[in-house]
Amino acid sequence: LSPHGEDLLRPAVGRPLAVRPAPLGHRDVAVEGAVPRTRSLVRAPAGFGKTQLLAQWRRDWLAQGGVVIWLALDEHDDPLRLAHGLAVAKAAGSGRRVMPQSSTSLFGKGADDLDELTSWLAEIADLGAETLLILDDAHSLPEATARHSLTYLLRNTPANLRVAMASRGRMALPMAELLAQGYFGVVGVEDLRFTLDETLALLATRFGQRLELDD
């Protein structure tokens, strides 16, 4: 069994009462509708709708015929466990069985996480489909795994892969270079906070004529 289990399935978020505009205030965060930037980080405290936004991106990506890989991270994800989770998540998202290309098991003696990540990235490139990797609860990832494995993944994404992450706080990712080059975008609290018009639209959807504008 996969050590991730239900982490491979997107959370059961209800149908949104309001759909957020794609750019969310930052043109460098999203392009072509509600499609996230090449690497995007949605960063805000709990309750700001991070997972809801990821689910919206997922729906939009699937509607365009792309492949979506969803993986929820946790504090147990050391580099090898992360590599294994990505492999299983890819199989679930693409409908294709994925076997490690190395001669050893991911958890066997001599297994190397960077080799496995490199093989995983090559398999994504070979898919021949635009692919969105969603990493939820990225703040739970051990710092060493984030600096070592996640950074490697973000710096070596093939042309057909985009990565969207959600985190409750800052992450230990040396992304200054990617930020400067425009490859890495951050959606923050102010982007997720509803505007007055969005708030009115949300209340109208929920309460209809029962709520007056003055209320």
Describe this protein's structure.
- By secondary structure, the protein is an alpha/beta fold.
- Helix content is 37%, strand content 15%.
- It contains seven helices and seven strands; from the N terminus they run E-E-E-H-E-H-H-E-H-E-H-E-H-H.
- Strands 4-5-6-3-7 form a five-stranded parallel β-sheet.
- A hairpin with a 3-residue loop joins strand 1 and strand 2.
- The N and C termini lie far apart (53 Å).
- About 13% of the residues have low confidence.
Q: Write down the oligomeric state.
A: single chain
Integer-rounded radius of gyration: 18 Å
Structural class: alpha/beta
Number of strands: 7
Number of helices, where a helix is a run of at least 4 consecutive DSSP H or I residues:
7
- Shape estimate: globular
SSE order in H/E notation? EEEHEHHEHEHEHH
Q: What's the N-to-C terminus distance?
A: 53 Å
Instruction: Report the uncertain regions.
Output: 21-35, 99-110
Helix content: 25-40%
For the biggest sheet, the summary is: 5 strands, parallel
Mean pLDDT: 78
For the biggest β-sheet, the strand order reads: 4-5-6-3-7
Question: In percent terms, what proportion of residues is strand?
Answer: 5-15%
